[in-house]
Amino acid sequence: MQTLLTLLSTLLWWVLYGSIAALAASLIAWPVLRWSERTEVVFNRVYLACLLWCLFGLLLVVLVAAHEGHLKPPYGPLLASLPLRLALVVDMAVGALLLWRLIPRVDARRIRPTSACMAVAAVIAVAFGIATSLA
Predict the structure, then answer these.
(1) What values do phi and psi take at 117, rounded to 5?
(2) How many CB atoms lie within 10 A of CB 27?
(3) pLDDT at site 35
(4) How far is Cα 66 from Cα 50, in angstroms, rounded to an integer?
(5) Residue 49's closest CA among 115, 126, 107?
(6) Which residues fall within 8 angstroms of residue 51, CB to CB, at 6 or more apart?
(7) What residue ranges of the chain have pLDDT lower than 70?
(8) Would you give the end-to-end CA distance of the chain in angstroms?
C-alpha cells in the first residue's frame, strides 16, 4: 500500500510541476510564435504542446539524473555531463516536433517548423539560464 501511495504521489507532483513549467514555457513560446508567424496562434494549444513537452522533459531529466546518480544538490556535475546534454538535444527535438504538430494559427494552418524551433530555443535559453544560476 505504501508503494502505491508513493507512486500516486510522485505522479501527482510530476503533473503539477509539469503544468507549472508548461505555463512558464507557454508564456515564453506564445509571443515568440506570434512574432515569428506574424499572426495569432492559439494559446491553449501552445499550452497543451508545452505541457506534453515539459512532462517528457521532466521525465527525461530525472531518468538521466538517476542514471548519473545526481538526484540531490549540487547539480553542477549533472549540468556538465554528456548524457544530460544528449538528453537536452532529444528534448529540444521533441519540443519542436510537438509545437509544430499541435499548434495551429488562427487561419487553421499549422505553424512553420522554423517558428517551432525558434520558440523551443527561446524556452530552452531561459530555462538553461535559470538552471545554471541555481546550480
Answers:
(1) -65, -40
(2) 14
(3) 96
(4) 24
(5) 115
(6) 18, 19, 22
(7) 135
(8) 36
For residue 104, list its beta bridge partners: 110
- CA–CA dist 47, 43 (Å, integer): 6
pLDDT of residue 9: 93
Phi, psi angles (nearest 5°) of residue 41: -120, 155
The CA distance from 117 to 127, in Å, is 15
Q: Residue 41 is which amino acid?
A: V
The separation between CA 10 and the C-alpha centre of its own chain, rounded to angstroms, equals 18
Separation CA 18–CA 24 (nearest Å): 10
What local confidence, expressed as pLDDT, does residue 135 receive? Answer: 65
Q: How far apart are the C-alpha atoms of 31 and 130, rounded to whole Å?
A: 19
Burial status of residue 19 (CB atoms within 10 A of its CB: 0-12, 13-18, 19 or more): middle
Residues 119 and 103: beta-carbon distance below 8 Å = no
